[in-house]
Design goal:
CATH superfamily: Histone deacetylase domain
Number of strands: 10
Helix content: 25-40%
Distance between the termini: 34 Å
Oligomer: single chain
Strand content: 5-15%
CATH topology: Arginase, Chain A
Bound molecules: zinc ion
Shape: globular
CATH architecture: 3-Layer(aba) Sandwich
Number of domains: 1
Order of helices and strands: EHEHHEEHEHEHEEHEHEHH
Strand order of the largest sheet: 2-1-5-10-9-6-7-8
Largest sheet: 8 strands, parallel
Amino acid sequence: MLDIFYHGNSLLHSMGHGHLESPDRIKIIEQALRQAPFKKNFHQAQTVNPNDILRVHDRSLHTLVKASQARGRHMFTPDTIANQYTYQAALTAAGGSIQTGLNAKVRPSFAMVRPPGHHATHSTVMGFCFYNNIAITAGYLRQHNYKRIAIIDVDNHHGNGTQDIFAPSADILYASLHADPSITFPGTGYATEVGLGEGEGTTVNIPLPGGTGDDDYLFAFDTIISPVVKQFKPEIILVSYGVDGLIGDPYGSLGLSVDGFRAIGTRIGMLGKLLCDHRIGVFLEGGYNYDMMGEATVNFFSGLLFPENYEKTMLSPGNEIQRVVFNVRSIHRNYWYGL
Ligand SMILES: [Zn+2]
């Protein structure tokens, strides 16, 4: 069973005609999930309490986003544009995300929301993101007795905002696989970015070569993400779920298949069952391959909900990914004995 939190507001926020981060993304994913071969419940997302936003964002960011309601169409950056509904959509995206985090205690849950969040930093709106939904949720859960929270980011792009917010935090692990920052937005997420102060080591970045396919991606997951998360022993796993790593995504640089997404979901589901009673909250980030993202999402959740149904296949990683993994392991061996 999957619990899905969403709100009609997400269909009203638009960054302009023809922009690929569009309401259609939600419609495609919703339609695919309604037809998925597993049980699901759809729930209305609630509006977030602004105090929950201010736990991770500067007040000036909140004031700016709020002001967009009266301003109408407003360009924050060339790629992050609000209309008169953006503020309401951002409030229900963050609210539905907190509900997702809370409900994950009972069973795996999905915040099917937009605008997405993982590029929004403590004080900056950017990369189609206004409030950082997953960070707001992690901040909320930390305040409500969760001692160790793991965030796994599988979006094609590095979640610079989430890293920015939790870099100094030892109790929140941020682990991300993303396309090489030297070739793609937002230009962060090098392996040498490992966190700050007490949080040193609890930021884990795996920059992937352009075109990385299923085997190489899963090899990096198995050799770095899995051992690190196992050693971290989270009480809950939160996932920044971007589906823009799919082959052919107009904003992506990776080459994952729809079956690859099932294998990623299976690995996360197995970690959840092994470590934290299957407490997993999933948060929609990017994804613009309209033809494949519905099927990839159903596959991802099939694997995540029922990991025991899918056997691991033998991987044949290429030389380039083996060099990347060697480099990340040599940096993180100081912090994680499993590497
Ligand atoms: Zn992305």
